[in-house]
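Friendly challenge for the regulars: who can give me the structure tokens for this chain first? No prize, just bragging rights.
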Amino acid sequence: MNQKVQIFVLMFFLMMSFGVSQSNWVQAADKKPKEPLAVLDLEVKHGVEKSVAEALSVIVRDKLHSYGEYQVMSKGDIQAVASREQLMQAMGCDDGGGQCLVDFGRAIGTRFMVAGDISKIGSTYTISLRMLDTKGEGAGVTNRVSYDCKCDDDALINAVRDVAAKLVGKPTSAVAKKAEDDARKLAEEKKKKGEEAELHRVSEEKIKAAEIAKKIELEATLRLADEKKIFEAEQKKLAEEKQKADEAEKQRQVAIAEEQRKVELEKERLIAEIETLKKDKETATIEAEKKRIVAESKKPDPDFFANLSPKISKSFTDPTTGMEFVLVPGGCFQMGDTFGDGQSNEKPVHDVCVDGFYMGKYEVTQSQYRTISGNNPSKYNKGDNYPVEKVSWNDAQSFIHLLNDKDGGKYRLPTEAEWEYAARSGGKSEKYSGGNDIVAISWYRDKSSISTHPVGQKQANGFGLHDMSGNVCEWCGDWFDSGYYGSSPRKNPEGPSTGSFRVFRGGSYNDDPDRLRAALRNWISPDIANYYLGFRLVLPVQRP
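First reply, four minutes later:
Bragging rights claimed.
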């Protein structure tokens, strides 16, 4: 079978599998929710066309879905929730423990991940699959299966199904192939012995095996025909639903047009009233005075920050954005994995001292970000008091520069040391910011409905700071270096002078509790803006 025919056969199975998956997916919607499972396309190692690997990937999804134990995400579902950069990183993941696949699975909201590759040398295919669990402390690879197949295209499809079955502990089957192999072995043995009668019997068994194979093939053909009917019925149902949706949209557009007409009428009425007011000189004078007073009230006090520093107030409010800040007194603490359950880059635990500073009581909100930057990049655009997210490190720096230019402040991002010191209420023995009761102090995966929440709803820590564990992750100013703790200066460390990744802390609404620890360090490229990344500001205390 040449390459074009091969691709045609595989794409035929792709279409049939898509139909089955779509039908089963709809049927599964009425049943009890199952654990979500995402299957990445097989990576092509050598000698296999990408289109063939994609078709075989669909067969893997179809096989795993057929057991009814998982809620298998389609390729389209994965692409809908993952960014292009995340997909590229996941497809190129080659670490032994699969941590990058675990992180990717958490990012798209799935419990299990399946990934693998396929190659061909000569006439032998090699198929490898691995399954990973993304949840809890045991996250990582749970099973690996590899299989070498010197086979034609039809046998390759069956081999891929068997590998998928073996990956989740299900029995494999190849009835026709086993019957044919047994008959061939029997014929060879009788031929060597020269027993003509036995050869005849073997021949009969071959015929029976062929009949069995033919029967299996016929049953498969009939099954595919039934599945095609189901697919066509589902397509018809979807077409009807689309027609209903289109009608509803038309009605909605009519309602919008009517509402716009009312708005235009109201606008004309207001314009007429304004014109009437303009004729009244006294009223016009009053309005002009009001505008002048409002304009003057919006101008920041040029002496605001100069007057603030000598007083060393316990709190203040930024005059431009309304952001509230609280004083974090300077001090020394043990920085790093003080509980002994952290990662290697959180060690060694070491002494650090920081000067006093002011820190934002809350994460920067969407309203505050829009006031300075003029836009709101957030995915969860639910209200002014929600934390801004989908902000890169570079975006945060642009915001800070604009704010400092506008009101003359010296705002910046906190250093890693300042952030951890403040999160642990001055270096107390707290696993999370504010204590060890994760439910009372944070929004995390099991309690957040996988979404951000308005700032300040959870219990504050000892300094009066909210949401430093959970809601959104928070950028720090430092470059990331996994070995930095071994050589960190004791006084006001600011991280390495150069690097490729910037640090972010605190965990988010989409993380498990172990990712919300106050000592946990995270890092990512400074130009990436994910929907779980936000920030808060600090202002150094300038003593008289």
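Confidence is low (pLDDT under 50) at residues 16-30, 283-307. The two ends are 85 Å apart (CA to CA). Your move, everyone else.
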